[in-house]
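step=encode ok
step=design start
structure_in=
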């Protein structure tokens, strides 16, 4: 018997329940019960992988729009979908100099204290002070 795992995986709550009293019908059981359960498993695994994935996003110093706060910047983010709620994580490079660390921490604090929303393929950040450097941050939970 061949089963089809949908791509992208789909989750369903509609899985036929089989009991000892149910007539044994292998083909019906495979398509009606086993295949949806396999797709649910694939869906849940893909969700865990997505939640653990970090997508890097660069916000440029010159990219902030607005004459007054809040300043906004919209960037393309592969895999982003409206309604996702990723975590903002630091992407400070390993081995950064103390000066780079200080500038990054300040810019990261500005971005982290603002707001961010995802659209289909985009992220829009709003801040109340413009970061003085280009900054790369991570969005944990967006698979690119």
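sequence_out=
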């Amino acid at each position: 018997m061949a089963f089809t795992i949908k791509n992208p995986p789909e989750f369903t709550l509609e899985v036929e329940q089989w009991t000892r009293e149910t007539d044994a019908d292998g083909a019906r059981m495979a398509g009606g019960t086993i295949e949806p359960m396999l797709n649910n498993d694939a869906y849940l695994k893909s969700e865990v992988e997505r939640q653990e994935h970090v997508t890097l996003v660069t916000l440029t110093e010159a990219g902030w729009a607005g004459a007054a706060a809040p300043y906004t910047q919209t960037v393309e983010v592969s895999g982003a979908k409206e309604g996702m709620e990723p975590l903002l994580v630091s992407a400070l490079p390993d081995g950064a100099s103390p000066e780079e660390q200080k500038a990054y921490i300040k810019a990261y604090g500005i971005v982290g204290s603002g707001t961010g929303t995802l659209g289909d393929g985009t992220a829009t950040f709003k801040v109340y002070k413009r970061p003085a450097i280009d900054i790369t941050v991570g969005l944990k939970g967006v698979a690119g």
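step=design ok
step=annotate ok -> The chain has a mean pLDDT of 82.
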